[in-house]
Amino acid sequence: MKNLILIRHAKSSWEAPLHDKERPLTSQGMQNAHLVSSNINDFLPKTYVLWSSTAERAIETAMIFAQNINYPLDSIIYKEELYTFDERKLEKVIKSYSNGYDNIIIFGHNEAITNFVNKFGDVYIDNVPTAGFVHLELESDSWETIEKGKTKKVIFPRDLK
Q: Taking CA 71 as the corner, what is the angle to CA 104 and CA 148, rounded to the nearest 5 degrees?
């Protein structure tokens, strides 16, 4: 069995004239990332790896979550291929992962995340909001052969306010 937790980066700023990958989190985004990450410990597998898109907003979100779940910051793995908005590309990346990992937490982007969780989960989600957490349990021994699984837990910032 494989467990995949997808977390959409927290709210990012459009104020400064930056390239998309360089946009930082807003103060509201930071607050929501802290709020959600402070409420997920009971829903995490015993062991897992944290992988993040290389976009600044995803990196900052991953670091906030890592701090709040006591995951070593220097153990976060940054993957350029997770900087995608296309669920087909996200699926291809996930299906290429080593089977040595059974539990993966990914920090990424929409539309890829919402469309991926709707394809592989059993609960329809209209939109995974910024800082949204979705845990999928996939009945497979291989990432390459994952198919539709169970949506085990969904936590959105609005649920905690």
A: 15
Give dist(CA 161, CA 149) in Å, integer.
29
Picking from 50, 99, 106, 60, the residue whose alpha carbon sits closest to that of residue 83 is: 106
Q: Closest Cα partner for 30 from 1, 56, 48, 6? A: 56
What would the two tokens of residue 104 be? 């993966």
Residue 151's beta-bridge partner residues? 136
At 82 the pLDDT is 97
Looking at the DSSP bridge assignments, the partners of residue 2 are 138
CATH 3.40.50.1240 fits 2-160, yes or no: yes
pTM exceeds 0.85 for this model: yes
Largest Cα–Cα distance in the chain? 45
The β-bridge relationship of strands 150-155 and 133-138 is antiparallel
Per-domain residue ranges of the chain: 2-160
Span 79-113, pLDDT tens digits:
999 999 999 999 999 999 999 999 999 999 999 99
- Whether 90 contacts 118, CB under 8 Å: no
Q: Judge whether residue 143 has pLDDT over 80.
A: yes
